[in-house]
Write a structure and sequence with these properties.
By secondary structure, the chain is α/β, with parallel strands linked by helices. It has two domains: 111 residues, Rossmann fold (3-Layer(aba) Sandwich), CATH 3.40.50.2300; 106 residues, Arc Repressor Mutant, subunit A, CATH 1.10.10. The chain is built from nine helices and twelve strands.
Length: 225
């Protein structure tokens, strides 16, 4: 299966350059801009993300940190001129030049991928972004594509209220909100998978007349201990 590389850039020819460097049968290079990347990666990041910061270094560095923090173990490279190339404690790789073919192949290799699993963790729930495997207190199951997309979106923004309109847009790619029974059914299924008690959900909470939010109930346990 081809490795997927995503280039995040506000203009510039970096994506085209990387497509010429990498064999098309083994690697797929796609691109997006700063404004759309968070929406487009809500369900998880590809094998490697390169944030092109040659025009806006500070903005690129901040965006790279956000992507890394919201997707545990994700491989993120920031191309930012005139900075310390050693990286920082976040695990982001920094370069002041367009990556070479050898660098790209190394980062996209199986060895590079094994350095960190791409998972989301909230409380006692772990979601593997590559296999769609859900682990709840050691009980493992595999989600359907829509269940996975919905849960990963909510888990990637813990504590944040996501409106019904946002969820319909990002999971089902529609602006239509006249009938959201499909969303309600999937919320019900996801709650079953994570062990939320009907009527008293701990993780996936309803915000009346607005939408839903995913919270960590174990945080309260730690504070009361």
């Amino acid at each position: 299966m081809p490795r997927h590389l995503l280039v995040v850039s506000d203009g510039g020819a970096l994506a085209g350059t990387l497509r010429r460097l990498l064999p098309g049968r083994r690697y797929v290079v796609t691109s997006t801009n700063y404004d759309r990347v968070l929406q487009e990666t809500a369900g998880g990041l590809p094998d490697l993300v390169i944030v092109d910061g040659q025009a806006a270094p500070d903005q690129a560095a901040g965006l790279a940190r956000h992507l890394r923090q919201s997707n545990a173990g994700a491989h993120v490279v920031a191309v930012v001129p005139s900075i310390d190339l050693a990286g920082d404690e976040s695990g982001i790789l920094y370069r002041d030049h367009v990556p070479t073919e050898d660098e790209l192949v190394a980062w996209l290799s199986e060895e590079g991928r094994s350095r960190g699993a791409r998972v989301l963790r909230v409380g006692r729930i772990t979601l593997d972004l590559d296999s769609r495997r859900l682990d709840v207190d050691g009980q493992v199951s595999v989600l359907t594509p829509k269940q996975f997309k919905l849960l990963s979106l909510l888990m990637s923004r813990p504590g944040e209220v996501l409106t019904r309109k946002q969820l319909m847009k990002e999971v089902w790619e529609t602006d239509y909100t006249g009938d959201t029974r499909t969303l309600d059914v999937h919320i019900h299924w996801v709650r079953e998978r994570i062990g939320d008690v009907p009527g008293q959900p701990k993780y996936l909470q309803t915000v009346r007349r607005v939408g839903y939010r995913f919270v960590d109930p174990t945080a309260d346990e730690g504070q009361s201990a």
